């Protein structure tokens, strides 16, 4: 897998939190033979770690969490994989990024238990995906490559 290139976003898209990064170049992960591509220009807000857990786990933008978090967020937006598979890929990518097994198990358990609250796209998520697909198309790329 290539390195994840990120660009800090001064003014995140309206469906994002106060802090966001934009993917600087397409990145691919393979899950059980299926390629998952996150497109350049996708914005995300790091790993969803409550501030009370930062001392134990780490901050949402810890470098070892970024690849796993961007794929997890992308899959929760596009539903290219089912939720359990998205959570499993998250765990696999944490381990591949040298996150210790105990911490990866805790983080995986958190997304399994609390991810249900974020799985369904709301109208803002759907509008964001529509804007993103348009931007990708305007750049001469095929949105279908990314599950859009």
Short description:
The protein is an alpha+beta fold.
Architecture overview:
By secondary structure, the chain is α+β, with helices and mostly antiparallel strands. It has one domain. Helix content is 43%, strand content 14%. It has five helices and five strands. Helix 1 runs antiparallel to helix 2 (83-96) and helix 2 (83-96) runs antiparallel to helix 3.
Tell me the layout of helices and strands.
Layout: E1 6-9, E2 20-23, E3 27-31, E4 34-38, E5 43-44, H1 63-78, H2 83-96, H3 101-114, H4 116-119, H5 123-138
Antiparallel strand pairs: 1-2, 2-5, 3-4
Query: Pairing-aware structural class of the strands and helices?
Result: alpha+beta
Number of helical segments with 4 or more residues: 5
Total strands: 5
Spans of at least 5 consecutive residues whose pLDDT stays below 50 are none
């Amino acid at each position: 897998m290539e390195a994840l290139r990120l660009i800090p976003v001064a003014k995140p898209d309206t469906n994002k939190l106060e802090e966001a990064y934009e993917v600087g170049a397409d990145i691919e992960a393979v899950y059980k033979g299926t390629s998952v591509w996150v497109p350049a220009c996708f914005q995300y807000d790091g790993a969803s770690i409550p501030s009370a857990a930062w001392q134990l786990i780490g901050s949402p933008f810890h470098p070892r969490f970024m690849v796993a978090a961007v794929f997890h967020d992308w899959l929760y937006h596009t539903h290219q994989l089912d939720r359990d598979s998205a959570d499993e890929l998250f765990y696999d990518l944490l381990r591949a990024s040298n996150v210790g097994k105990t911490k990866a198990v805790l983080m995986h358990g958190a997304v399994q238990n609390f991810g249900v609250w974020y799985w369904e796209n709301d109208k803002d998520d759907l509008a964001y995906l529509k804007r993103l697909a348009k931007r990708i198309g305007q750049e001469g790329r095929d949105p279908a490559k990314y599950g859009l």
